[in-house]
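Handout, page 2. Input:
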Amino acid sequence: MTDSGKPNIAVRAIETTLFGARWLLAPLYLAMVVLLALLVARFVLDLIHVAPTILTMDDNQVIMAVLSLIDLSLSANLVVIVILSGYENFVARIALAEGDLRPAWMGNIDFTGLKLKLLGSITAIAAIHLLRVFLEVRTEPDRVVMWQMAMLFAFVLTGLLLALTDKISGEH
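Output:
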């Protein structure tokens, strides 16, 4: 600001540029829509592949096929959360999603809530991968299994600590 209280032209230009820079994120979210479509295509292909043989599979094979489909579904959910909440938090409000069409969390989720949702999805995906490793006929070396367990534990611990710090900071 100048001494007269009017904003400096250079400062105003910088602030306008910085504020407008958020629109650079929009192409990233559009690219994630393409990623979501690819996940859906992969889900459909896997389902088409599994459907004719699911009644003749043994229990372990059925569980593995189902876990694979759940894994893709959770990954797609993760992409949707990032697209919608990221766009609304950092670019602009989505005016099309109003009333009953608007998910309850949309527009109400803060950055910490977003991190918790993302971490919850990532933890669920990691847990499914670990469960698949345990169900497979020992194809992974013990060291790999231990690292996967350690990573899952780290995700769970991080989620708990993030939730705890959010609760503590909300009390003060």
